[in-house]
Amino acid sequence: MATGICARPAPALRRYVDSYVGFDLRGLAAGVHCGPPSRVLTAVISLSDPLEVAAGVGDGSPVTRFGSVAGGLMDRSVAIHHDGRQQGVKVALTPLGARAIYGMPAAVLAHRLVPLDELLGALGVELADRLRAASTWPARFTVLDELLLRAVGRGVGSDHVRRMRPEVAEAWRRLVAARGCVQVGAVAAEIGWSRRHLTERFRGELGLSPKAVARVLRFEHAHDLATARDRLPWPDVATISGYADQAHLVRDWREFTGRTPTAWRDSEVLLGTG
User: Fold this and answer.
1) How many CA atoms are closer than 13 Å to the CA of 243, on its beta-carbon side?
2) Least confident span in 63-67, 263-267, 269-273
3) Picking from 55-64, 99-108, 230-239, which range would have the lowest pLDDT averaged per residue?
């Protein structure tokens, strides 16, 4: 059995928080869930046993136990080991949310997994305790709104929470709007920077280059199509999400997940459980 409850954050948080997802998974086959790279920074608070997570799939990355964990933007999947049961809350932050809620640019967390309370301090401990004490999903989402708004409020006016450069924010917006199917040189020209300068500034803020983010966005689109209830054939997934051909999709899929698309679909135990 698997349930997933999605919610939008409070309006004042929507620049910083993309979504909340509550999940309750039981009675599934034990295995390794492949958490794919995407446009968001993910934080997960377990409501039951600690999470067992590695920062790579099938590459020997060590498995670490977290009561709650936060990650930056990634260019590969994380491996979430489970025994067929998981209950928790996932918070998807925008890159702006890293500065507003954690007090640092997203680049500091790129390719990393860290305990959430290492970033939020006592507020992170309170957040986990109150989420576990709440008995309904609406109550948990209300707790998230309250405490994340407090996190944003305590950073207002702080010198270390400077605004993202508007040119970087605009480059991010254009890449996301095009789902990665845009030339980085064209984006740089449109905002009045050289490609090299954009790449340096963009990586300094987000931790990934514009080209790497474009690849992640194309993969994210393909992943969404591959996990839809009405699944498309792989050649159609490749075409719609902007790959040159199916071979191009397979190369990226293997790099991002450690598996071919078909092997991933055969081994991903959480597919079709929503």
Assistant:
1) 25
2) 269-273
3) 55-64
